[in-house]
Amino acid sequence: MNRKISIESYFSLPTDLSAELQSFPEFIDGVGYDVDLRTEDRKEEVTVRFVEGEHASHVLVRGSGDGFLFDRVVGRVIWALSAHPIIFR
Question: Is residue 64 part of a domain?
Answer without folding.
Answer: yes
